[in-house]
Design brief:
By secondary structure, the protein is α+β, with helices and mostly antiparallel strands. It has helices spanning 4-18, 27-36, 41-48, 53-63, 72-79, 90-100, 103-106, 109-120, 127-133, 147-153, 224-242, and strands at residues 156-164, 167-172, 175-178, 181-184, 188-193, 210-214, 217-222. The protein has two domains: 4-133, no CATH class; 150-242, Roll (SH3 type barrels). The chain contains eleven helices and seven strands.
Length: 245
């Protein structure tokens, strides 16, 4: 009954939850599910309490006539990107922004008008659109995003170049501002933990693998096709963001 969509979504949702940025205050419980590799109704309930993420998943599922918002196809659409995003109409996205996210109340009038305009330009319900085009964080901390926090919050990808016990060195291209536009900077290397405890997470990781990351937490090993799609949908979101910086 419970499958890989739950596990996959949990890996992406864990890092901001651990940092108390979004979701229920249950990071230890969520990590226990990850480390033990278990899924059940309790995990499903925990993920449904992410007040920003879950409504996106629900709308993507609804627009594609998929019953379960945590279906693996829906989870991949939101975090990585796939064709399901293109079946969410601007009308549905706008209704979601009002009824589910209440952006008209959480953003100032100018910011909401900009958001309306971008939805009208066929913005897609990819995680990167939310991060890069809604400048105010909408979890527990409603601070304005910086380029550094946007880079950490978007799903990035990088190549593993060194593995040292529980740590890995990853080479990736960060987001930077140049001439008041968001672009990808030159590749840099950063060290991140591949697990918090001795739970065997990412034991199958190899040098040369490409992984996705969220707030410096490794989420999954990406195929070349997934990497291309993540880059494609991220660039679409960057292009929209650069219209109004």
């Amino acid at each position: 009954m419970f499958g890989t969509g739950l596990t996959r979504c949990t890996r992406y949702a864990f890092a901001p939850n651990r940092l108390h940025l979004c979701g229920p205050d249950k990071s230890s419980e969520i990590y226990a599910y990850l480390s033990e590799g278990e899924t059940d109704k309790g995990l499903q309930i925990l993920l449904s309490q992410f007040k920003t993420m879950y409504p996106y998943l629900r709308q993507i599922a609804l627009s594609n006539k998929i019953k379960d918002p945590l279906d693996e196809r829906v989870v991949e659409a939101y975090w990585i990107g796939n064709k399901l995003l293109e079946n969410v109409s601007p009308r549905s996205f706008y209704r979601h922004s009002i009824e589910d996210q209440m952006f008209h109340k959480r953003l100032d009038k100018k910011s909401f008008r900009i958001l309306e305009s971008k939805i009208g330009q066929n913005a897609l319900m990819h995680h990167s659109f939310h991060v890069l085009n809604i400048m105010k964080r909408t979890g527990y901390s409603e601070k304005e995003h910086t380029i550094e926090s946007m880079d950490a919050c978007r799903i990035s990808w990088g190549k593993v170049i060194k593995i040292t016990g529980p740590f890995i060195d990853v080479q990736y291209s960060p987001l930077i501002l140049k001439n008041n536009k968001i672009i990808f900077g030159s590749p840099v290397t950063k060290k991140i933990a591949r697990r918090l405890g001795d739970d065997g997470t990412f034991d199958d990781l190899k040098i040369g693998d490409t992984i996705s990351m969220h707030w410096d937490w490794p989420c999954e090993i990406l195929t070349p096709n997934q990497t291309k799609r993540l880059e494609y949908y991220t660039k679409l979101s960057i292009n929209l963001a650069n219209q109004t910086l």
